[in-house]
Amino acid sequence: MGTKVAFKWSKQITPSQVVHLIKAERNVDKALAIFDLATAEYANGFRHHHSTFGVMISRLVSANKFGPAEDLLDRMKVEKCDLREDIFLSLCRGYGRVHRPLDAMRIFGKMKDFQCEPSKKSYITVFDILVEENQLKLAFRFYRHMREVGVPTSVVSLNILIKALCKNSGTLDSALHIFHEMPNHGCPPDSYTFGTLINGLCRFGKVTDAKVLFEEMKTRDCSPSIVTYSSLIHGLCQLKNINEAMKLLEEMKNNGMEPNVFTYSSLMDGLCKDGHSSEAMELLETMVGKRCKPNMITYSTLINGLCKEGRIQQAVEILDRMKLQGLQPDAGLYGKIISGFCDTNKFQEAANFLDEMVLGRTLPNRLTWSLHVRIYNMVVQGLCTKSDLSRAFHLYLSMRTRGISVETGTFETLMHYFCKNGDLLKAARMVDEMVIDGCTPNEGAWSMLLGAFWDQQMVQEAVELFQVEMISEFTEADRKIQDKAF
After folding, report:
1. Which residues fall within 8 angstroms of residue 189, CB to CB, at 6 or more apart?
2. Quick check: 383 and 351 in contact, CB under 8 A?
3. Region 100-129: what's the mean pLDDT?
4. Dist. CA 455–CA 413, nearest whole Å
5. How far is 293 from 36, CA to CA, in rounded Å?
6. Hey, is 231 helix, strand or coil?
7. Selection from 353, 354, 351 nearest residue 384 by Cα
8. Which helix (H) or strand (E) holds 26?
9. Among 3, 9, 397, 459, which lies 20 to 30 A Cα-Cα from 59?
10. pLDDT digits (tens, 9 = 90+) for 59-114
11. pLDDT tens-digit readout, 396-428
C-alpha cells in the first residue's frame, strides 16, 4: 500500500507549489505521494515541470531509491520534459556515493539518448567518480575520450588525473611529470595539486620528495590544508622522524589549524612504535581536551603500543574507555591484550578476556584466526600451571565446540595435570580426543599415563589404553600403505 497524504490543492496548482511541498516533507515516501497526487491533477490541466521532476529525483537519490528515480527520468523523456544536466549529475553522484561507479557511467551514457549534451562539468564529475572508486583503467580510458571530444584541459581535470596516478607507486613519476608541465599549459598547480602529490609520495614512503614539494608549495602562495599537514606528519611518523612530525604539528597549530583525528592518530602511532607510549597517552588527553573524538585506529594504536611495552593494565583502561565511547573492540585488539597477560603469566585475567570476547560475540577473522588459536592453547596450558585445572578444562571444551584446533602440547599438558591430580578418566579422555584429532602423544606422556594406571591397579583401563595406542598405530601404518598404493 502507498503512503497516504491528505490535503487539498488550491484551484490553480503550480509547479513551484509542488516543489515547495516536496522539499518541506521530510519523509521521502510521503514526498513521492505528494508528487503522485500532483500527477492526478493532469486531468485538470496541470503538468509536471523539470523543477518538480528534478526535486523528486534528487530526494529519491538522497534516500538511495535509485530504481524509482530512474523511472521518473524515463517518464520525463516520455512527457517531453526539459531534461537538464543537473538531474543526470545528481544520479551520477548518488551512484558514486554508494560505490556503484559503473551505474554512474551508464547514467552518463544516457544523457545523449535523452538529447542532453554533457558539458565539461559532467565529464569531470564522472572522471572523478571513477578515480575515487579505483576504476583506474576505465578512468584513463575515459580521460582519453574527454581529450578526443575536445573537453578543454583544466586545473580540476589535471588534479583528478594526478590523483589517479598517485594511487600506484609505479605511476608516481607520471604524476610528477604532469605537475611540472601544468604551468606550460596555462594551468598552474593549486593547493589541491600539491596536497594530492604530497599525500601520494608519503603513502609510498617518498617522504623526502614530499618535504621538497611542501616547501615549494609555500613559495607559490599555496596554503597547505589539514589533510596535507596530516599526510606529511603520517609519512614522517612511519619513518620514525617523530621530532620533525611534532614540529609540523606546532606549525600547523600556529597557522590556526586544528589537528584532526588522523593527525593525532598518526603521531600516536609514531610515538608508540618508538617506545614512547606515555607521550602518546598525553596526546590522547590533549586530543580529548580539544573535543576531537578518538576513533578505532586511535585506540588500537595506543593499545598496541602499551601492550608492546608490557603496560597491560593501562591497555585495559584504554579498552574500557573505548567501550564507554560505544566502540566495540575487535578480535585483534582482544588478542593483543590476552597475549600481554600471557606474557606476564596472568592466565586467569587472559581467560576472563577470552570469556568477555565470546560473550560479546567478537569473532576472529581470517587474519586474526591463527593468533587466537595460539592464544587459546597458551591460556589453557598456562591455567594448568597455575593449578586452575577446572577452568583450563572448560576453556578446552569451549575450543572444541568453537572449532579452534587444539595443539599436541595442550593435550599433553592437560593429561599431565589430570594424572598429577589423580583424575585418570579425564586423562584417558584427553588421549581419546587426541587420537581422534590425529595427534600422537609422545613416549613420555604415554609412560606417565600408563604408570598412573598401574599405580592405581587399574589394569583393565591400562589394557584398553594400550589397545587405543595399538589401533592408532595400525591405522597410521594402514594409511601409509594405502598412500604408497596410489
Report:
1. 155, 179, 182, 183, 220, 222
2. yes
3. 94
4. 20
5. 44
6. helix
7. 351
8. none
9. 9
10. 999 999 999 999 999 999 999 888 889 999 999 999 999 999 999 999 999 998 88
11. 998 888 888 888 889 889 988 888 888 888 888
